[in-house]
TrEMBL record:
Keywords: Signal
Protein name in the entry: Monosaccharide ABC transporter substrate-binding protein (CUT2 family)
Organism from which the protein derives: Thermasporomyces composti
Gene3D superfamilies found in the cross-reference section: 3.40.50.2300
Top-rank taxon: Bacteria
Sequence similarity: Belongs to the bacterial solute-binding protein 2 family.
InterPro entries: Peripla_BP_I (IPR028082), SBP_2_dom (IPR025997)
GO molecular function: carbohydrate binding
């Protein structure tokens, strides 16, 4: 006898009981789902975060912020990144993530041109893309960009240089390399503010790559050409470390002011020992959290903010131990974040 035939032979009361039980289970199931829903809207989404550099303290803090938001919103998050700042290393990671088909990708592109096509491909596959920290030439495929206001941060660095030098003397910028959106914006803001100071002799921007030895050499050569060198603006960790070495080798620590973009442990130590007089601190913790929130909003049909710019401030030896400063110092682990 077929299953349908067996069901027809059930006693009417038994059929009624089974129907009642079935309805009860549906109601109980719906109630259970409602009890587990915290209103976060996460819905079990899978999100992949691809940072610019694995093991870097800045991106460690960004990942901490992302993890905190993922836990709060009930989404699954995995974090990956290249071993060096190189598009040739980041693109294969991105392609592997695309093949795994997560619901969303958060990524800090290491090159604003080389990552353009691969990210457009991710979006074409229906993956929600949020750009964090850095961007590409045409970010129209991304549902949101969450980044520091690097231009404003550069202006804050210039303000600190002006304060420390009294608005006089020669100033040089040591940058990494062309094609990195964040550091380019920092220099833009720095130069714009510095141009308003007639007493400053701005000798321009020098590229040192991510090479501390080259940054040290820039200080040496600049000092030889401009004995009145009063300040150095370094746009990231390694340029700052190299600049400090160059200043120290010239026996001018403290005399030539160093303003960097390094809230890593090395930059903090430079403030404590007087190798640097100021470090511009960005807020990667906030970038990571906002990135996950915007991805979840896009996936769940909620309003999304197309561009979010997070804040910055200048850390000095005087405010280094303030709780708000400590909160945003970069850490690879989430301790203290």
């Amino acid at each position: 006898m077929t299953p349908a035939g067996r069901e027809e032979q059930l006693h009417p009361l038994r059929r009624a009981f089974l129907a009642f039980l079935s309805v009860g289970l549906v109601v109980a199931s719906a109630a259970g789902c409602g009890a587990e829903d915290t209103g976060s809207g996460g819905d079990g989404y899978r999100i992949s975060l691809i940072v610019g550099l694995k093991g870097d303290d800045f991106y460690g803090s960004l990942a901490c912020g992302a993890r905190q938001a993922a836990k709060k919103l009930g989404v699954e998050l995995d974090v990956q990144g290249p071993n060096k700042w190189d598009a040739a290393e980041q693109i294969p990671i991105l392609n592997s993530v695309i093949a795994a088909r997560p619901d969303a990708i958060l990524i800090a592109p290491v090159d604003d041109t080389a990552l353009q096509a691969p990210l457009e491909q991710a979006a074409a596959h229906g993956i929600t893309v949020v750009l964090v920290d850095t961007t590409v030439k045409n970010p129209s495929f991304a549902v949101s960009q969450v980044t520091s206001d690097d231009e404003l941060a550069g202006e804050k660095a210039a303000e600190e240089v002006i304060r420390l030098t009294g608005g006089t003397g020669a100033v040089v910028t040591i940058n990494t390399q062309p094609g990195v959106s964040t550091v380019a914006a920092r220099v833009r803001g720095f130069e714009k503010r510095l141009a308003q100071e007639p007493g400053i002799e701005y000798v321009g921007e020098r590229f040192a790559g991510d090479d501390a030895a080259k940054a040290s050499s820039v200080v040496t050569s600049t000092l030889a050409a401009h004995p009145n060198l009063a300040a150095v603006f370094a746009t990231n960790t390694l340029t700052g470390q190299g600049a400090a070495t160059g200043i120290r080798n010239a026996h001018k620590s403290g005399e030539i002011k160093l303003i960097g973009f390094d809230a890593n442990p090395s930059g903090v130590q430079a403030l404590r020992d007087g190798s640097a007089q100021g470090q511009v601190v960005l807020k990667p913790l906030d970038i990571g959290a906002e990135g996950v929130e915007q991805a979840v909003n896009a996936l769940s049909g909620k309003p999304v903010t197309k561009l979010i710019r997070t804040g910055s401030f200048v850390a000095t030896k005087d405010n280094l131990d303030d709780p708000e400063t400590q909160k945003y110092l970069y850490r690879e682990s989430c301790t203290g974040a």
